[in-house]
Every structure is written in C-alpha cells, then in structure tokens.
Automatic annotation (TrEMBL):
Cited InterPro entries: ASB_dom_sf (IPR029009), D-isomer_2_OHA_DH_cat_dom (IPR006139), D-isomer_DH_CS (IPR029753), D-isomer_DH_CS1 (IPR029752), D-isomer_DH_NAD-bd (IPR006140), NAD(P)-bd_dom_sf (IPR036291), PGDH (IPR006236), PGDH_ASB_dom (IPR045626)
Alphabetical keyword list: Acetylation, Amino-acid biosynthesis, NAD, Oxidoreductase, Phosphoprotein, Serine biosynthesis
Residues annotated as domain D-isomer specific 2-hydroxyacid dehydrogenase NAD-binding: 111-285
Catalytic activity: (2R)-3-phosphoglycerate + NAD(+) = 3-phosphooxypyruvate + NADH + H(+)
D-3-phosphoglycerate dehydrogenase ASB domain: residues covered: 330-449
Record GO terms (molecular function): NAD binding; phosphoglycerate dehydrogenase activity
Subunit structure: Homotetramer.
Name of the protein described by the UniProt record: D-3-phosphoglycerate dehydrogenase
Record's keyword annotation contains Cell wall biogenesis/degradation: no
Enzyme Commission number, as recorded: 1.1.1.95
Domain of life of the source: Eukaryota
Organism field: Mizuhopecten yessoensis (Japanese scallop)
Amino acid sequence: MSFSLSSVLITDEIDQKCVDVLKNNGINVVKNTKLSKDELLVEIAKYDGLVVRSATKVTADVIEAATNLKIIGRAGTGVDNIDCDAASRKGIIVMNTPGGNTLSAAEHTCALICASSRHIHQGDRAMKGENWGERKKLMGSELYGKTLAIIGLGRIGKEVALRMQSFGMTTIGFDPIIPGSVSAEFNVEWMALEAIWPKADYITVHTPLIPQTRNLINDKVFSLCKRGVRVINVARGGIIEEEALLRALESGQCGGAGIDVYSSEPPKDFSLAKHRNVVATPHLGASTVEAQQRVAVEIAEQFVDLVQGKSLFGAVNAPALTNAMDVNTQPWIELGKKLGVVAAAVNDQNKEFSVALYGSSLGKSAGSYMTAAVLAGLLQNSSLLGAGDSSKLNLVSAPALAKQYGINSKSTYEEAAPAPYSALVSVVFSNGFRVSGTTSGGQALLVEIQGQKFPSPACLCDSVVVFRGTSNPQLIPNVAGALVGAGVTVTSLNTSLETDGQKWGVATFATPPSESCLEALKSLVTAARLIAF
Ligand SMILES: NC(=O)c1ccc[n+]([C@@H]2O[C@H](COP(=O)([O-])OP(=O)(O)OC[C@H]3O[C@@H](n4cnc5c(N)ncnc54)[C@H](O)[C@@H]3O)[C@@H](O)[C@H]2O)c1
Ligand SMILES: O=C(O)[C@H](O)COP(=O)(O)O
C-alpha cells in the first residue's frame, strides 16, 4: 500500500518535536494555533495531513472543506473532537496516540483524589486570602482503608488503581470488556455497577464518552451511593451528569469532586468549577512536559511509518487498512475486493450479504477487514457512488459509504474450512447468490459462483471475462476460439461444474482485452462480463 503525505497543518499547541520529526522526513509542516473556524475551513484544503489535540473541533464541515485531506492525527487519546464518521465516509484515516499520556492522566487523577480528601484547594484559597481561621473548617479524611471504585479499567483506570493501592485503598471496578480475571491481576475486584455504588467512598471514571457512558453517574446513581461519596472525572465531561453532581454537592450526598473535564470546554457555566467542594482544573490531565513530548513524537512517527509503509499503528477508523499492511493479510483483502467486484458484475441484488469465513488461519477477527474489502469491491463500479464518493472509495470509506447507501453486511466464522481448502471466503447474498474464493501463492482464486464449484479454481488476475453458458463439450473450445478470433491472448480458461445444464466460466488474458471482445461471445454464452480489478 502506498501513502504519500506532502504537507501537514498543526492547529493546536503541540510540542515542537512533532514538527521536527515530520520535517526531518521530508514532510512540510505549518503550525497555526490561532485559526478561527472560518479560517480553518479555507486553510484546510491546502493540506493532506492535520494534527490536533482536543481544542480544534474537526467537525463534518471542516472535513467537507478538506478536499485533499488523507489523515487526521490526534496527539492524545480521545478522538471525540473529530467527526470520525464523516472522516471515514471520505476515506480519511483518523489516528491517535493511545498510551502516550496515560501516566500523566493517571497521576492527575490521583492528585485530585488527594486534593479532594484533604481540601487542598480550599486551604490554598484560605491562605491566599490570609484567612488562617479556615483551618478548623477543613477537616479531611484519610484515604487509607477507603474504597475506590474505578469505572473503566483500561490504560488509565489500571494505573490509577496501582497508585492508589499504595495509599491503602481497596480498589473495585467495572468494565464491560476487561473481565474480573484480568482486573484481579492488578488487584481490582470486578463488580457489576449496582454492587459498586453502595460500596464506594470514591468513584473515578476512565471511560470514553459514548452513549453508554453519557450521564453514567446521575441523580439515581448518587442516591444509591454512600452519603458523602466523592467523585473524580479526568476522562470526559458528561460521564458524570453536571447538573446531578451540583445537586448532590448541594445536598451533601456528594462530599466533594475533582473535575478536569467539562461537557463543553471552556465551560459555558462555571458553577460546578466554582463550587466550594470541587477541585477543578482546566483539562490538564495530559498537560505535562513528558506526555506532550511523547504524544508529539508518537503522532509524527506514526505518520512517517505510514508513509514508509511500515505500519498503521493508532488508526481508529481503519481496521481493513491496518490489516492491508500485513503481508499475510494482504492477499485475503485483495481476494475480498475481487469477490465484491465479481458479485457486483453478475448478481443484481447486492444490498444485503454475509461474509462467511472458514479456516483458523483467517480467524474471527478477519470479519471486520474482509467485510470492508468486499464492500470496497462491490462499490467500485457502483452507480450508487456520487462523483465525490468514487474518488474517495477505499478500505476506510467503504463501510461508512455502504452504511449511507443502506447496504447491510455481517460476517460469520467457522474454524474448519470445506475440503480441500485450508481457508475459504464465501460472500452470500440475501437472494441466495454465493461467490467463494481462496488464496494461493498470494493470488486470489475463484472457487465457486452461485453454488457452482470450479474443480480447478480460476485465477482472478488483473482482468477476466466471467461468462455463463449451456453445458456442452464445445463450450470451452468455442469460447477460446472466439476470443482468439477477437485478437486476445487467452492464458487460462476454467469452467465450473454444471447445474441445470449451465456452467460458469472464467477466462484470463496475457494483456487486458477491450470490452469489444464480448461481442465475439454473444452467440456462444448466455451472459458474459469483462471485469477489470
Ligand atoms: N483529562 C485528560 O487530559 C485525559 C488524558 C488522557 C485520556 N483522557 C480520557 O480518559 C479516558 C480513558 O482513557 P484510556 O486511555 O484509559 O482509554 P482505554 O480505552 O484504555 O480505556 C477505556 C476503558 O473504558 C471501558 N469502557 C467502555 N465502555 C464502558 C462502560 N460503559 N462502562 C465501563 N467501562 C467502559 C473500555 O472497555 C476500556 O477498557 C478517555 O475518555 C480519554 O479520552 C483524558
Ligand atoms: O484524550 C486526551 O488525550 C486528553 O483529553 C488530552 O487532551 P489534550 O491533548 O487537549 O490535553
């Protein structure tokens, strides 16, 4: 896979090291952190790469205006400031630097837990106001022996657990993906959320902001918690419902909060940040010299690795493209695309299909990239694609465009492949049409069309003629003779087993023929398509 990048725009405060790494690898860089939205809409068209933190909102209109953009890099973790669906529809890769700021965000969380338990913020305010008398109002509580509930046991949640255990806190937690056996390895007892609420003295959230986590901590949850529970949010504003938190702080049901992130940034309303029992910071979780240098270098190196064809590490919207860089997976992705192209050429109902994967060498996880590959093939010559869409069709945009056009796909997996193949891919449409293939020596081979198997699989080379004809001993010699007569050099001719007196056939060529060669077949076959992959 080749990927070129000529000029990158950086619109947020990102460490100089990002600029240096990109420039040292021959990529032009412009850093402008002062662009208004209107200016960004004009500027963005000049660049094929964009690097942001959380301040720049890469909305659908920015992506629409980004006529040359190929990649958006997030120097950090959360990509919720980027419209990833809009980017996917335009075939634009979105990548982040997962892990580069994990330790800083974890340390900041621990700092907020400590500050909240000992009223550090209130004490500091009192001292600055020369108000020593505040001292007697600021009785804190020890963390030792208290229970810390961690919602989201990914990178940051785990690091918070390990650090707060050294204070003698008991750590419990919930994550729908991380099982109890894994969380037990870092001494977090996994519990269902209902069991967590009444046990927790402190609750810290470390999830992405997604529909399932929006307002996760709300009035109802506060009512199920211990009176005086303290909550911390260094993840995303909106995971703890801000109005519910204010109400719980006012009633004393919540004893204090440490908040780094807000549902709108900067907040439209500072009531929460100003509350006496809230220690508030302006989204500082990743704001350390170390984290900023790390994410700056990582995003730049990830861009360079992609240009050099080494890896697509950090891509969040391109599972198929990521796999397309693996030499073992590449032939399967090519096969998927070609099966999609064949299906689009000879089957007239392509809106609903399933990709059936067979063989342990493919594995269940192949479903996401093989489905994307088949979709890319199906859409390649489709009239569904608008003019703008067809130039953007790739393994990133195919699933997003298919969704837009109402094409539904799913995948299934079985460990055992039908003999004689060790691995096989079948694309099965809702009208019963089925096309199957495998790979050998890096080549895509057609094994079956419409349930009719090829005793000897047909190569899906650069261009082929796929035809259907009445089964008679003269079919192959007649088709071969007609093609030779039309001036094309046939390199192979394979036919399937027959069903209802009909056979499928595939012809391959030394050099791609023109569409006119099909004229020669008209009287010999019931259907023929020239397919250029
Ligand atoms: N404040 C900051 O400056 C700062 C810095 C870095 C990261 N972050 C944010 O912190 C959050 C966590 O980052 P991370 O690197 O640990 O991510 P991660 O992907 O490693 O972990 C997130 C975890 O949340 C879990 N999760 C998803 N849905 C859940 C649900 N409904 N309930 C419970 N858990 C759920 C996931 O399974 C995953 O394990 C993200 O929102 C990220 O954007 C903030
Ligand atoms: O998701 C992240 O990486 C953090 O929220 C950091 O955001 P920032 O890069 O704007 O500090």
